[in-house]
TrEMBL record:
Gene3D superfamilies: 3.40.190.290
Signal peptide from the UniProt entry: none
Superkingdom of the organism of origin: Bacteria
Pfam families with a match to the protein in the record: LysR_substrate
One term of GO molecular function: DNA-binding transcription factor activity
Family affiliation: Belongs to the LysR transcriptional regulatory family.
Organism: uncultured Sphingomonas sp
Residues of the LysR substrate-binding domain: 32-232
Protein's UniProt name: Transcriptional regulator, LysR family
Amino acid sequence: MTEAGAAFQQTAADVLARLDQARDDAEAGASRLAGPIRITAPLSFGVTHLAPALAAFVAGHAEVVLDVRLDDQVVDLQAGGFDLGIRIGRPPNSSLTPRRLTLVRPYVVGSLDYLARRGRPAVPSHLAGHDVLVYVNADLEAWRAAFPKLDIGRLNVRFRSDNGDTLREAAIAGLGLLILPDFLVAASVKGGRLEPLLPSHPLASAAIYAVSPPGRPILRRVRALVEHLATAFGPMA
């Protein structure tokens, strides 16, 4: 797209946003909510937790129309025309308007087969030399953040993916150790397919945020949805 085309697209988006805000203001006195809400969220969290909460919201507001896009890649809210984004971890972009919805707790996990072959690390220093599975867009940063004193150069990356479910299945198959949030591994741990490690060194909880694009007023229906999600999720960790 040319620079002029991008400028025109942004201008058009701003005009539509102002029209939507004008309609929202006109309906502010009414109890009903109406209109579209465009949302982006991580795939796995969207399927397991967000979808049921969104369905409940729509069931209670017949004139609200949701457009939900699930993608583990972080997208530009403004460029994509999104009203709301769901992020795991505080957004690095300070121009976004964040609202914390809930907390999740990450765990280091491995399959029983892998641990039988390679041993169970009892302390973080025992992780050196182990095979690990990582997100494409983060690589070893999750391990660096979780264990600052660990020499991550001694970790062997065996598998990368942009999707948490894929990484979990690779861990179940015995390819290595993995850091994932509880909502992705709880069922596998309960079923005995994965084992949480380092119980004496718990990882810090991570917040899940709803974020709005900069420079755009937050519509009444979007605010109502955010409040609904905060209530629906509650503390998860």
